Amino acid sequence: MPRMNDTSRRRRFADAAREERPDLALLCLLVGMEADSGLDETGIDEAQIELDRLAGQLPFSPGGPEDWAAALARLLGERHGFRGGPADYQRLGSSLLHTVLRRRRGLPILLSVVWMEVARRAGAPVYGVALPGHFVVGFGDPYGSHVLADPFDGGRPLSSEDAATLVSGATGAPLSASMLSPAGSLDIVLRILNNIRAWASARPERTDVRLWAVELSLLLPSHPAELRYERAQLLVERGDFMTGAKELEEYAEVVEAVRPDAAETVRHEARAARAMLN
């Protein structure tokens, strides 16, 4: 099956992000299409089928939140070996759902997506928990009886103290109740794209990856305005001085009312970019 062109992929991603109930797995797989030229519609279908297959291996209605968490840990953590380690932070593939499904390795947030999508298909009361620096999953009522599990560690159950330790280790701050709230699908996708941007930022030769991650983020209904500035800077860095300068000027207009000094700095960058054409 032929691969969609850039415009068709972006349109499909934007449309999927604006669904009343966004399909988290589909959005993650469309992110994968940007990174992997070998991923086509057939590959997306195969990844969705694999999630269905894994869900079919779970016991029917095993019990309460603890039972669901234990069942997922046995299936995904023990039987199929889904987990992560330090080396996985160095791979772009650790942020791509189709690659994580194949390798059984990934970042905490992508492994959590696998857990959530498999558990959801089996009828589990599951949700994502966007702890600072370490994404995990929850089962049950997030505002009542629930349990947390860490897919990065094969599904290890997390007590409140364990969660607090993860947060403290990542930020030095204490755990707050708001950190345990369910993460929305679009928030999860934006965090995945932020991870990809961070991966590419540490590799100056991969501005191509950083650019498409920014551009996909801008297609989400809600995103930080600063991403427009980052895209303009990337365009200039990649040699598209005219377009980059134009977008820098447009961003300066946006921030003029609240940050006039910053707007003037951005305009100076735009003039410098245009000068590169001379």
TrEMBL record:
Domain of life: Bacteria
Domain Protein SirB1 N-terminal positions: 48-194
InterPro entries xref list: SirB1_N
Entry's family note: Belongs to the UPF0162 family.
Name of this chain's protein: Protein SirB1 N-terminal domain-containing protein
Native species: Streptomyces violaceusniger
